[in-house]
Structure formats: structure tokens, C-alpha cells
Model the fold of this input.
Amino acid sequence: MKVFGYKDMVLVEPASLGKGEFRAGLMHRVLFVMEPLTHLNWTFWNDYAGAMKACARLVPHTSEVETAIKGFTNGLELIDAPSACVYVVYSTFDLSTVETNDVRKMINIQMCMTVTTSATDRNFPAVTHMGIFRSPLLSVANLSGLPPLIKAQLEGTPDFYRGKPAKGISLVLHCFAARALVTFLGGCQPALMITAPLPHMGNLLGEVGKIVAIDVTPKLGRSEPPISGGSTPRLSSAPTTGFSSLSSRSPMPMTRPTSTYGRGGMSTSSPKIGAPSLVSSPSLSSKEASSSSSSPMSTSSPKIGAPSLVAKPSLSSTDASSSSPSSSSPEGGRETSPIDAPRQVGALKYAVLRGPMNSSLMIKYQGLDVIWTQIEYPWLFALAFNLSHKYAATFSDLRVLRELHQDIVMASGPHTAQLIKPK
Done:
């Protein structure tokens, strides 16, 4: 199953030329797709990531694009992790290529990322959005350095991308993913989105739905009881203002399906969603939070507004305009959100404890008071709290993202691709 969506976005604003003359605006229909990562499509997405990494060497901000692609491939590596359910969400120029899984699909993707949540608990309240990047093909000026298959496909149509790329779609992609996941989860609505964004994406997400997160790891005493699994917690050496990281190699099997470079075949089964398995463990500390069960927070449509807003202004226009554009996000055309959208909501306390045999993430936010261990949720530590990451983890309220961009038209089912063709 796939979930589709589209949003009609303004590329060029209408403008007055004076003397009663006006310049017409220009609209562009941006198409979105979300599909589960399975053994049927893993080879395509792995090859796509490799091809885009090669293309990234031909554009400005190469290191940022490569860092984003690494976050994307980290999600792909969880294909055989029984605890993880991974999806790929992307924007395409042509819905007819969605099922092809070949070079035609590659060149039509303008932005993508992975979305990961628990495969064993439909009601798990957290997801990760990792590895969002804008296709470097949109910025390549010289086709000579492209991978051969992509070069051959584009050489016949040198103006392939002219007039197509829609600027300012990364936040829209996050919002589409938040809403599409509810369909895949049968109506369940996760509340937390955790990611480790590049600076420009961190600034963007900081404007809408960002949760003010306080790392209390340094405040926890060494006399805390052992975490689930019998290991004794060891405090991270991360600074108070930073975040605690974990090993990038989580203890899970990593046998992957065939790629064009010749790996062995695999079963074509998709990730399954089963019974709940939230960890019941001690809360942050007697001073930081009272003990409670690890029941998920309410996921009903929230009244997120003035009462829960933190009195912290969003980026000013001056601050926002001073940030440099990146090839991993739309260039120019700063993204905006509805003017009444919550900027920063609530306050969350978290701690990451590392032990010799197990690690744990403690979170207290509104009605959520949980401890999740690396043994039960290795994907969460491999993606969001990974020692190899250059940037700290951040938290956003998915309920806010689901409320934004309500003009995204959503559809799912086998025939919906024909219903949302471009105008």
C-alpha cells in the first residue's frame, strides 16, 4: 500500500506592474508519496541513495547533502530489524514512475526522507524523520559527471527540470508524512517526532511545533536503579546543553536483499505491526519526575494554542534570511507556515543513559512518562541518538505538524495515483 497526496503551491506570486497591468502568478502541483520499505523496494532505495551521493559531489554544500544522505541510508539499514517499521516519503514530479523502481523514478524525485516507528506497537508514541534531502540533480549544471544511467536518461532532455522544482516543500513533506503515517497505523496518532536535523532544517522545524527539550542526563545520580535488561546505567559525558549519543552499531542482524551489485535474495515480506511492548521502568528521578507507567500520551486532536506556547519568538525575517541555502533543502523562497501555527510548544525532559549491555532513553512530556531501552527499540538509538551524528536530537509535536497545511489533499488505495494527476 502507498499513501498519496498533493498540494497546489505558489511558485510565482501575482504582482502589479503599474498602470493597471498585472503579472499573473504561477501555481505548481506538488505530489507526495509514502511507501513502506520492504524487500521488494529496498534495492531501489539503496541504489538511489548511492547515486545521489555520487551526484552530491557535483553541487555546492556537498558535505551537508552527504550528511543528509547518510541519515537516509541509516534508515534503510533497518530493513531486517524486527523492531522497526520504516517508510520512505518523497515528492515526485511524475506519479507514473512510482511503481517502476528504476532510473525514471530516480530522476523524478525532488525530495525524500525516511520515517521510522515501532513494528511491535501500533500505539508507540514516537517516530523519527531522518535523512531529508533535496535531490542534488536539481542543482547539477554539467551532466558529464553523473552516474551513467542517470546521465543517459537526462541527456535526451536537457531541460527536464525547467519549471518543475517547487521551492519551500520540506516542511510540507514533514506534514504530509505525519498525516500519511496515521493511515498506515490504522488511525493511531503518534505524538512525538524525533530527528537530528542539519542546521537549516533545525531552524525551520524550530518555527512550528518544536518542543523545548531539556537534557537532564547530567542531573541524574549514579545511584539510580538498573534499567531494564539488568545493566547499570552509566552517565553520558555529553555537556548539559548537548545530547547523549549511543553507538552507531546497534545489536541487530543486518542481512540485506539483493542490489544491482549482487547481494543474495531475501523474503518479500513487509514489516509487521503487532502487540504493544512499552517498557515499564523507573522515571527520570524523584526530583525531576514522579514514577508512572509508560502509557502513551493522548493522541486526540489537541487544542494546541496559547496555553501551551512557550514565550519564545520564532526566527525574525532578518535571522531567517541570513541562513545560507543548501542543496539538501529548497534553494531560495523561504518556507512559511500558517501565521497562527504554534511556534514552540510545551517542555520535555529527557535523558540518555548508556550501560555496558543496554542503554535507555527516558522521556517525560505532558502525559508521557516512559523509559525506552536499546534492547527493545534499537532503531530509535541507531537513528536519533547515534554517536556518528554531527547534530543533536530535537523533538517536535506531531500533532502540530498534522494540523498544518490542511490543504494537502490525501488519498490512499490502488487507484488513487490516477486521481491526483497534475493539472
Q: What stands out?
A: The two ends are 24 Å apart (CA to CA). Residues 3-256+273-418 form one domain.
